[in-house]
Amino acid sequence: ESCIILNKSNSYHFVSLTTHQSEKRLIVVLESASLETAKVGGEYVLLQADRHRDRIKKLGRDPADYRPDIAHQCLLMLQDSPLNRAGLLQVFVRTSRNVLIQVDPQTRIPRTYDRFAGLMVQLLHKLAIHAAEGSRKKLLKVIKNPITDHLPAQAHKFTTSVQADASLTEQLSRTPVTDQPVVFVIGAVAHGSISADYAEGSVSLSGYPLSAALACAKLTGEFEAYWRIEELRAEHTTASRTDK
Q1: C-alpha pair distances (Å), 24 with each of 166, 183, 205
Q2: Is a pLDDT exceeding 50 seen at residue 4?
Q3: Into how many domains does the chain fold?
Q4: CB neighbour list of residue 238: distance below 8 Å, 6 or more residues apart
Q5: pLDDT tens for each residue of 30-67
Q6: How many CB atoms lie under 10 A from the CB of residue 169?
Q7: C-alpha angle with apex 177: 171 to 181, nearest 5 degrees?
Q8: Which GO terms fall under biological process for this protein (predicted)?
């Protein structure tokens, strides 16, 4: 069951009224996100390859691994998606330093990278971002590992890879998830693959290599079609007008 509320941007936002473990939804885990802070010039910053190359090298690490902009792009795609607005998306982020973050569906990700970076620094140091000053609602929060403690035990869990044998369409025909949660792990990295020992298999979203952000967009788009999000929204809108 869902209801519609009007958010600050005056766009319709469907919010789920139930949060049972068995509730139908897509759960996305952004894995190995480069979200790490360090003190530079007297203040804490989110380490980023182009801006903090020398500092990263002093730490004995590869600057190419420090791409927090990838997590930013992914979160924009996910949180702005019709699937999320329909209350059918849940997002977690696990950083390369093994910090686990839960993202509330109503979180609006900052449009600019600099604001996003500032928000992540605040989150990683204060462990939570509240909806408003004095509010108890946490839009972003650091939670305890392992990630499996926060995932429905019965949900199918997959990683994504261009080399996977089965496409998403083929996998959904084998293991339908019309009324149950399903988990997908996407690497928030520029190159290479990620592993998730709790995943039962891997699926391909495209025959071409995709950026992490495009993989997020394609995945949510596939489930919007699979769960008929736009059709149901249109039906709901028509019914609401009829009731008036």
Answers
A1: 22, 11, 21
A2: no
A3: 1
A4: none
A5: 999 999 999 888 899 999 988 888 888 888 888 888 99
A6: 13
A7: 115
A8: rRNA base methylation
Whether residue 95 contacts residue 33, with contact meaning beta carbons closer than 8 Å, is answered with yes
Q: What residue type is 131 in one-letter code? A: A
Instruction: Give helix 68-79 / helix 212-226 axis angle, nearest 10°.
Output: 20
> Tens digits of per-residue pLDDT, 128-150?
999 887 778 999 999 999 999 99
Residue 1 lies in a domain: no
Confidence of residue 207 (pLDDT cuts 50, 70, 90): very high
pTM of the predicted structure, to 2 decimals: 0.88
Least confidently predicted of 9-13, 124-128, 153-157: 9-13
Return the residue matching tokens 């190419």. 64
Q: Is residue 197 part of a domain?
A: yes
Judged against a pLDDT cut of 80, whether residue 202 lies above it is answered with: yes
Residue 70 lies in a domain: yes
Asked if residue 84 lies in contact with residue 71, where contact means CB atoms within 8 angstroms, the answer is no
**With the C-alpha atoms ordered 130, 149, 199, 220, is the resulting torsion angle positive or negative?**
negative
Domain that holds residue 150: 23-237
